[in-house]
């Protein structure tokens, strides 16, 4: 796995928002082998075999809208058996940004407001990596795999008083 340098983007494709316009422009991205290795390291995955995306960006003076689709294939580690497994991500997404922070808002309104994007450039590669991290299964598990805990745990959990019951000759019905 390739280590990424601090502050070095794993996958970048910056666009100038002024060239997009309100009617929108479509971009298609595909990460190369080196970029996929850096993305895998960032996402703590053994490997990313494919990362493609298509995004339609529209921008006005006050807002930016991103509508896209992500298509990815990656190798993950099963949380139950620790074995490598394949995960496929194919998902549509939409993101809205404001160009300037809104005037005063309540705390509740602030939580629901779109993120603010400052500057005239937008990194579509970084957006795609962020969407991949959100779409990945947080607990990847191979189908039909028994967890290590299930395989090696005692069959039932006994009470510390279970031994006393057997010494005293009492069971659950005769206490």
Overall description:
Helices cover 23% and strands 33% of the residues. The protein is built from 5 helices and 7 strands. The protein is α+β, with helices and mostly antiparallel strands and 175 residues long. InterPro entries: YceD. This is DUF177 domain-containing protein. Residues 100-119 are annotated as: Disordered. Residues 103-113 have a biased composition (Acidic residues).
Our count of helices gives: 5
How helix-rich are the residues, as a percent range? 10-25%
| Count of discrete domains | 1
**What integer is the average pLDDT?**
84
Strand content: 25-35%
Low-confidence stretches: 1-5
Largest sheet: 5 strands, mixed
Structural class: alpha+beta
Overall, the morphology is elongated
Quaternary structure state of the chains depicted: single chain
First-to-last CA distance: 61 Å
From the alpha carbons, calculate the radius of gyration and give it in angstroms.
25 Å
- Strand order within the widest beta sheet: 2-3-4-5-6
- How many runs of DSSP E, i.e. beta strands? 7
What series of H and E elements makes up the topology?
A: EEHEEEHEEHHH
């Amino acid at each position: 796995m390739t280590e990424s340098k601090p502050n070095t983007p794993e996958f970048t494709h910056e666009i100038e928002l002024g060239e997009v316009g309100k009617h929108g422009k479509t971009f298609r991205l595909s990460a190369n082998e080196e970029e996929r290795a850096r993305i895998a390291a960032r996402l703590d995955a053994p490997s990313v075999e494919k990362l493609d995306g298509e995004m339609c960006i529209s921008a006005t003076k006050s807002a930016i809208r991103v509508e896209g689709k992500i298509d990815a294939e990656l190798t993950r580690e099963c949380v139950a058996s620790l074995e490598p497994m394949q995960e496929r991500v194919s998902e549509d997404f939409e993101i809205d940004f404001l160009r300037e922070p809104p005037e005063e808002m309540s705390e509740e309104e602030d939580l629901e407001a779109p993120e603010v994007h400052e500057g005239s450039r937008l990194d579509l590669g970084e957006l795609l990596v962020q969407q991949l991290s959100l779409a990945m299964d947080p607990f990847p598990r191979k189908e039909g795999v028994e967890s290590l805990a299930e395989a090696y745990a005692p069959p039932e959990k006994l009470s510390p008083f279970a031994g006393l019951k057997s010494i005293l000759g009492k069971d659950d019905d005769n206490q």
